[in-house]
Each structure stands twice: as structure tokens, then as C-alpha cells.
Amino acid sequence: MKKGLRKSLRWLAVIVAFLSVTTALIVATETGTRWALDRVLGGVAGLDIHDIRGTLLTNLEVGRIDYANPNAALALIEIDINVSWSRTLLGRLTLQHLSVSEVHYQNLKQESIEPKPLEISIPEIPFSILVDSITAQAVTVNGNRVTDVAARMPELRSDSLRTPGATASFSDIEIAISNFSIHFDDDLPVDGQLEWQYSDGEWIGKATVAGSLRQLRFQHELLAPQTATAFGSVRLLNQTVPLIDATVRADYWLFGQWTVANGELVIKGTKDVYSATASATVTNEQSYSAEIQAIGNGSSTGLEAVEVRAQSALGRVLASGSIAWSPDPALDMQVNGENIDLADFLPVAPGKLDTTFSLTASSPTNFVVDVTSLSGTYNDQAVNALGSFSRVDAVYLCTECELSVGQNNISFDGSVSGRSLAASFAIDANSLGHLWPELGGSIAGDGVLRGSVDLPIVTANATGSLVSWRDWSIGKFTVQSRTSELDKIDLQFDIDGLARGDTVFGRGRLRAEGEIDAIDVHIDWWADELRASTRATVALGEDSIVGTVSRANLIEQYSGTWRLSSPLEFSAGTEGIRVAANSWVNGDAILQHGHLVITGSELELGATLSNMPLAVANNALPDSIRLGGFANANISLQRQDETWTGDLHWRQNDTDVWLSQPGVQEFQIDIPVFNFDVHLDATGATARAEIEVEPGLDGLLEVSVDELSPDAELLARLQFSGSEWDWIPVLLPEIDDVQGAITADVRVGGSPRSPRLHGDLRWQQGQLAIPSLNAPLTDIDVTVTADSDDDASIIGKATAGGGTLLLDGRLEDIAQATRSFSVDIKGDSAELLNWPDYQLTASPDLNISGNTGAVAFNGKLDVEKAEITVRELPEGAVRPSADAVVTGETLETRSKVLLSGDVDVVLSENVHIDAFGLDSRLEGNLRFSQQETGKPQAVGELQLKDGVFGAYGQKLELKKGTLIFTGPVDDPIVNVRAIREIETVSGTITVGIELRGRAKNPSSTIFSDPAMSETDTLSYLVLGRPLQTASTADGNQVADAAFALGVRQAALITNQIGLSLGLDELAIEGSNQSTVSLVAGKQINSRLYARYAYGVFARIGNLLLRYQLSERFTIEVGAGDSQSMDLLYIIEKK
After folding, report:
1. Separation of alpha carbons 865 and 912, rounded Å
2. Which of 425, 650, 987, 1023 has the most CB atoms in a 10 Å sphere around its CB?
3. Euclidean distance between CA atoms 206 and 201, whole angstroms
4. DSSP state, 891?
5. Is 318 in contact with 335 (CB distance < 8 Å)?
6. pLDDT tens digits, residue range 386-421?
């Protein structure tokens, strides 16, 4: 028994040893490993293994494994297998590592057209396979390549596949899968999470999937660069292709200048047959938004039917057609636009259009736009357009393109291919302002273009009239191009009336003719006091212009003729601009231009000037100023590496300045010295200006900056002194007799953009007269002190007649556009006006403040003494009608300064007025006010005291007189009562007149005590006696007075006067001021009638005598401003 057991154990040991040795030979040697794989896999049809390296025990490498059957082909390249034997011996085949460099899979089976369900057959696996990690550098399935595949601890069981995580790259997308599992039962459940990003990290997203292969639900979220969500389901087991039901939403998405909000895309169907709908709100940078909706049906090759609708405040657009992306991209759309607002495209003028066009394209650079209809309005003008525009193979073509806007018509037909041209054009624009509001005038022309873009052959004619753009204008121009051959030019351009604003530059002509490499160019220009002419030869290259100016003259009225003394060579091109040395002569004056080189941002310039007459500047100066003398200068200037260096030296000696004004004797100023120097280098710039003026004025200015920039550190000093100012009234006729010593010493810091001033300006022992006031100011002492950054104080005093004026104020932000001031003016019995008929002495207490756009005043003015005398009105001094329009008068345009404020004016008892028959004192208070917009206003009351009122040739005593101001200064409420007392034998008779109402439309009445008729009242008022005792001349005087009361009252009074004088006719005739006459008539006998009419305002008398010759014939003779004789024949109709 024991022997049998020992024998069995020996055999078992032998077997175990054999198996161990055999297993070791199989798994531990390359030969054994090849033998084992051949025995295990050699019977699999279609399987080939190549290049086995290593062993199953340590590490197994296989160069390539190919498997093929009639339905598919699979290739694994560079397989690396590492088995975990410790866990495998426990009954679980575990691979420590499995990697594949490339996996290629190709489906060889011919797909059946008939759909059928998806069938998956998975054989039973008696054990589970666990791999710690698996990698593949590339996996290709039917031509779709996935790279860098890696999975952590994938586990394959008979009914499931699990992995905690896997990564892969597809194109530029990096995908990460976590917690992924598939259970192989009836519905094949799937659950997992996925993260992905582009390799550059710009696009990032994540997703979750759940469900089964029968219906897989997904939720996707785009995280960068912007956010969007997608959700839906995929039916993977739907016959032969998956069925998709997906929705994509984006609350906010930015595409360049466009913003998409509330976007939604819904796709239903398979990749071969699906429908899609989309909607979104699109907004551009100008905040114009549009609601867009789209529907379409398509396949994997594109959208066979798509319709897009866009609706916004700018109009409506409907586009329908098809879009293809496979096998070749293509677009075929029909577009209709309705009520398209042009505000977003041409904001300069309003407009709306309707259009219909077709758009076909095979790429963004190959397309055809065929406009069949375009109509509407632009700039209130009718618009119509037709034509076809395309680009095919880099050829731009516009076929029968026509555009009309109002009276303007433009047509173009031709192509641009590469750099070549072949086109014709025509323009007939009678109103350029309809095309573009900033343009004006008209242009007409036509032509043909051939050749290339760089060297076109142009045969064309064009004319223009009153063409303007902004403040530039051309009276007329003509262009003629008769070029008919390549490399030749034949061009003439004439221009007349070139101007900018009110500045006219004159007229000119350009003539260019010849071969491209030898063009003769003639330029002539004429202005009012200037003429220039140039002759040159120019050669045009591909990227440069080379030429020689052979002759040039510049003739100017004041400085004479400047001539180019020798030919001037120049060139311009990609290498820069170069002008060779040249010189210009004008008598003894010489301008030598050493050189000019401009290369990119670099510049080099050198020039000298000798004996240049300063009169050359007179054409640019006002007519009241003329210069004389000569100047010498030299300049050297360089710019390199964005740094300016160089010097400028300007010298004037014995300069004369002549000042003149109409009616004023010409005044001459001598300037013996004027020097100006500038130095530039890498550390900044310095400048120095020095001037001496005879008599009695010296100035020095020194400036330095550490760089040429508005924010550079600025250091400057201005020193100035002068005592002779006789020349100022010539420039400023409003002032006269300027005397005193004026000195200044001002330092400037900060920067050119924000300078800071320190120093003072002083006027001492001064005197000033304003001729219009005839009240000189003496003993003037004014000091302006810059005492803080950009601010200054002003303080001063002066003597005005027997009184004084004091000045105290502040100036702020002196060097800024926002500069402002506030000044207090106080005085004591200051004489402000001193003419025989106008005198004013007052004590002001005023504050005046403001800036460059508005001035405000407030305070009080005590008028201590005033004398106002108006002896007579100038001839023709009549207030114009409110409806009157003055033509032919040019008003000077000035910047409007808004004026506002309130001033209280107090009149003392020494204010006297003698004007228009009124001789009285004025007392009272007024408050004058002025708003920034509107007329001056006044509120208050003035009393007329101790005065007389002249009326009807009599001095009437003022018993009561008030002027009440409640608004406009020139229309107070008048209440005046004046009387005349006449002593008669029966007692004292008092007659008078009352004026009431607004000054512009007062009413007058006469009265008497005791009461009497208006005729007698007026007679006593005018003559001092009753009408019964009046003569004919006295009657006329009373009639004149009656007319002054008003036509209605005059008619009653004149009838009574006529009866009293024994006249058959006494009346007032006429309807207006020019025709009103006082008429007196008398029937002398039965045949003769005499009539005399005297113009009340015209002061011309007319005498008419009418004598009856017979019953039907009468003769009339008239004499006055004209003479006449008429024979009248009378016919009576029954």
C-alpha cells in the first residue's frame, strides 16, 4: 500500500514536473509561446499572426495580427500584452497591460438596401477577462481614424463590459469617458459619462448617456468658449441606421459682431432622412435685432429643401432653396426682401427697398447673385436696380448692372480677372446730393476700361458742375482720357472754382501724355494773386514713379516770381520718396533745398532760405496788415526710429509792419529784431523767440519739452514789456489813446495738454478812451496774477471822470477750452458817458461771469446823474414793419455768446430827458433781466416829474406821468396827462390831452374844463381860442391836430371846421401813411370848383380846378407834384 502510494506520488511528481517544465517551455520561451499561440489560434480561419516577440511569462509583443472573413477585415499592429499571472492562477485571466499601436477595421459586407434589425451575437465566455490598462495609438473603422485610445481596468464578462474611464482623440477632439458600462441582455443597457475638448482647449464639453441601445438618452453641455445644451435620444437598434431625436439650445451666443439669443435647433430622423427646425433672435452691434425661423428636410449630403424667415424693424426676408455639403458644397437660394430699412447699411439718409434675387454658390469665393428686382426709396428719391454680379474662378463679373436714384443713373458692364480689366461704364448724376447727402452738384460721363488694375487703359469723358463735398467745392471740371493703347497715357483734367469754405484756390489744368516710361506732364494753376506752372517727365513702374521737373514757376503779387533754377529729380515707390537737391530763385532771394528722403517712417530734410521778401505772406494776412523786409532761415530735420532730431533758425532784420483802417492814417511799426530758433534731439525740444519793436516793446519766449507729445513735461517763460501803443487803435478802432507801461513775466509748467501758469501781467499808469463813450479812463492800474495751476486773479482800479472804478475777479482754466471768469466791478460816481446830448454818471456794483459760450451779469447800478437829449430824429427814422425783410445785406457770422442776468437800476432825481417834445425829470427803479434765449425784459415804474410836454405847437404842463414796465423794455404801459390853461374874460379854461396804453399802441383823448365840444377843445388846445375866430390857416392847423388824434375823431372834427370856415368840403382822405391828405374844397360859381389837397406826411400840395364847359363836357387842370389837363365827357346810362 505504501509502495503503491509512493509510486503514485513519484508519477504525480513526474507529471507535475513535466507539466511545469512544459508550461515553463510554453510561457517562458519564445519558441514555446509561438507553439502555444499556433496551437490555440492556428485553427481559426482567416487569422494570421506575424512577428511574435517575447514570452507570455514576461512580456509578449506581436508585430501584426490580421483577421478577415467575407464580411469584415481587422488588423492589429504592434500589440503589447502583459499577463498578471498572480491573479490568473487564482482563476481569473487578468492582463496587466494591453496596448495596440493601430487598429484598422473595414466592413466588407455589401449593405442590403432593405432595412433589417440589428443583431448582435456574443459567445459565452467561461471566465471574465480583466485588463489593468489598454491603449491603442490609432483605431481606424471604415476609414474613420481614432487616435490615442486608452482604457483603465476594462473588464469583459459574458454579459457586460465595464471600464472606470477611457480616453480617445478624434480629429482635434479629445474625449474622456468615465463610469461606462454595457450589459448584454435583451435591451443592451448603456450608462456613462463623457468629457471632451479640442486639443487647443478652446472648445470643451461634457455629456451623460443612459438607457439602452434600443433607446439611448443623452444630455450634453457645451462649456467653452460659450455655453449651449443639447438633449434627446438615439434609437441605435432602429432597423439599419440609428433614429435621432435631438434638441440643441443656446441662450446666448456671440458670432463676431452678431449676438444670438434664445436659439433652438430640433433634429428628427436618421442621417439619411431627417427634418430640422431652428429659431433664434439675432442682434448686431447697432442693437438691431431680428427674429429668425428656419425649417428644412435633408440627408447626409445636405438640405434638399430649406426655408428661412427673418423679421425685424429693418424689414422682412424670406429665403428658400437647397444647401449641399457632400459630395461638393453648393448653395441655391431664392431671396425676397420686403420693406428693407437702409438705416443699418447707409445711415447717412433714410431709405427702404424691396428686392428679389437668386443666389447660387459652390464656395464662399464662387457665387452668382442675379438681381431680378430692386426698388424703393433712398434719401426721399425713387430707387431701381437690376443686374447680375458673380465671382467664378477669381473673375469678378457685373453683367448689365444698372442703378437709378432720383435723377441719377449709373450703369456698369464688365469684369475684373486677376489684375486685368474689361468693362464699360456710364454715369448721369444730375443731383449728387440724392446719392450722398454730403455731396452736391452734378456729374456726367462714360468710358471703357481695359488693360490691368495697375495700368488701366481708360477711354472716358466726364464733366462736373457745382460739385461739393462738405466744405470743399468745385465750380466745374472736365476730364478727358483718350488712352487707346497699352502702356500709353493721354489725359487732360481741367478744374475751375476750387474752394474750401470762403477760401477760393482758383483754377488749374493737368495735361499728361506719352508712353508709360516717359509721360510729359504739364500743370498750370491760377489764383487771384498767384500763378504756378510746372513741366515734368514722369515714368510709371510697377511699384514706383520716377520723374524730372524741368521747369517750374511761381508768380505771386507781393513777392514776385520764384523760378526753379535747375532740373529737379524725384522718385516715389515702395522704397520711399526722394527729392534731389534743387534751388529756387527770386531776384536776390534764394531757396536751396538740399535733399528730402522719406523711407517708411524715416525722414531727412535740409534747406536754406536767403533774402526772402516777407511780402510773400501778405496774401494770407488781413487787408489791414502788410509786411515788409526780408528773412533768412535754415532747417535740418531727421526722423529715425520714431525720434525727431534737427534745428531750425529764422532771422528777420529791419522788418516793417504797416497797419491801416478805412478813414484812419496808415501806421508803421519797425521791428529791428525777430529771431526764432528750435532744436530737436532724443531728449526733447527747445525753442527761443526774441522780438524788439520800435518804439518801446521787447519780448522773449523760451520753451522746452522732454518729448514731442501732448503729455510731455513743459517748461516755458514769457517776458514782455512795452510802453508805446499808438498802433493799437489802428487795429482796434473801438478804442483810442492807449497809454501806460505793460509788463509780463509768466512761467509755464505742466504739459502742452494741461499747462500750469505762474506769474503776472501788469498795466500801470494807464489810460484808455472809448470814442463811442467819450469818457476816458485814467490812472489805470491792473494786475493779472497766475497764482495756481491754470488759474489767475485780476485786480485793478481806474479813474472815470470825477469818480473811480474797481475791478476784482478770477480767471479759471485759462489754457483750457473750458476757461471761465468771474469779475466784480464796483464804482463811485464814475463818469461812463460824456457827450453834450448824452451824459451818464453812475455807481455800479456788478458781477459779470461766464465762459466761452455764455456770460451772466448780476448786481445794481445807481444812476446819480444823467442827461438825455434827442433834438430831432434822423430823416427816415421810422420803425420797420415786423413783416419787413431786408435783402442784399450780408451779416457777419459770429459765434453766439448766450447772455443772461438781472440788474437793478435806480434813477436819482438828477436824471433828465429832453426828447420828442418831452422835457422832464425821471425817477424810479427798474429791474432789467435777460434770459439766454429771448428779448430783454424790465419790471418797475418810472415817474415823469416837473416837466412839460410839447404837442400841437404848444407846451403842455405835465400833471401826471408814469411808465410801468411789465415785460419787453420797448413797450411799457404809458399814463400821461398834460394840460394848458387859458385865461379868458369869462374865467380860466383848462384843456389837455391824456395818453394811455402800451407804448407801441397808445390811445389819446382830449378834455376841457368847463366841458365843450371836441372841436372847440382841440381849437383851444392848439390855438388858445374857439374855432369861430379861426382863420383858414388856423383851421388847417386844427385839422392836422385832429388827424393826430386818429382818423375816426378827425372826420367829425374836420366837418365842423369846414362849416365854421364856410368851406363846401373839408376832410381827411387816404388809407395809409403815404396817401393821407387834408382836403379843402369850395364851389366858386356854378361852373367852377376849386379843390386843394395837402399831404400830411408827404408835405406836398395839389390844386385841382374843374370847369364845366357844357352838360356833358368838363375840363380838369391839376398842378402839384405833377401837372395834368383832362377833358372829360360824361355819359349817363338809363
Report:
1. 8
2. 1023
3. 13
4. P
5. yes
6. 999 998 888 889 998 999 999 899 999 998 886 688
